[in-house]
Each structure stands twice: as structure tokens, then as C-alpha cells.
Amino acid sequence: MSNRVDEGVLAYLGKAIWTLLVREYLVEEKSIDKLEDLQKESLKYIGVKAQSSIFIELLGNRFFTSEEIEVYKRGRNFQSVVQSKNFDFQSYRVSTGFEVLIGHWHIEKQKERIEKLWEKVKTMIENKE
After folding, report:
1. How far apart are CA 35 and CA 10, in angstroms?
2. Model confidence, pTM
3. Distance separating alpha carbons of residues 10 and 22, to the nearest angstrom
4. Core-most of 1, 38, 114, 115, by most CB within 10 Å?
5. Is 61 helix (H, G, I), strand (E, B) or coil?
6. Is-contact 71 104, C-beta < 8 A?
């Protein structure tokens, strides 16, 4: 496990990776070419509420391994200096754990897990539209 990297750093990295995946998808595959539309559409994937819902649904579908759940829990329990004022604390913690897991996969060179997660999430969102 990426014990050498602080949870805050993993969350920061995970958030950046997740945001880039979403934005590339919306611009390249969904052909969104206006900033306002891009921001609106990205809310389905990015942010405390979206990420918390995504993680909980995938957890219910047994997407994650037991080791991945432990990494998530480590991130969920991380005491961030910055806390969202717009969302409940529980959702914020779940979202942070989700970001830490993505950052962990990246650091540990488990890019196939990020890709598998992304494909699953795209399908989930598209099925809800």
C-alpha cells in the first residue's frame, strides 16, 4: 500500500486524475464545447455529492477488493484541514476516501483499476440519463 504518501496528497492527486478523466470524456466523447455546459455536465461525476453516490453504488455492487476498501477507509478517516461547508460531513468523508483510492491506484501503477472504474461509472451515469 502507498504508506509512503500522505492521504491528503493521495486525495489531491486522485481528485486531479478524476477531474481530468471526466473533462476529457465530456469534451472528446460527448462533444461539449462550452464552458458553462461542461461545468454543468461534470457535476454528475465530480464533487462531493456525485463522488459519494458513485462510491456507495459501486460498493453495493462489490466492485472493490478488501484491500481497496481498506485504502478507502484510510482516506475516509483522514482529517482534512479544509472541509466543505456545502455538503454534509459524511458525504465529504466518502468523497475524500474515493479520491484517496484513485490516488493510491495511480501511485501504485494500477492504472487498469482506474480505467475499469471509469468504464463502470460512465455506464452507470449513461444508464441514468
Report:
1. 27
2. 0.90
3. 18
4. 114
5. coil
6. yes
Grid cell of 4 as nine digits: 509512503
Q: Quick one: which of 67, 79, 75, 33 has its CA closest to 51?
A: 75
Amino acid at 35: L
| CA distances from residue 108 to 49, 65, 111 in whole angstroms, order as listed | 27, 15, 8
Give pLDDT, residue 123: 92
Single out the residue of 18, 11, 24 nearest to residue 45, CA to CA.
Answer: 18
76-106 pLDDT tens trace: 887 765 555 666 788 889 999 999 999 999 9
Long-range contacts of 53-61 (CB under 8 A, 24+ apart): 54/98, 54/121, 54/124, 55/94, 55/95, 55/97, 55/98, 56/94, 57/124, 58/117, 58/120, 58/121, 58/124
- Within 13 Å and on the Cβ side, how many CA atoms surround 92? 12
**C-alpha cell, 37:** 455546459
Span 39-82, pLDDT tens digits: 999 998 998 999 999 999 999 999 999 999 999 999 988 776 55
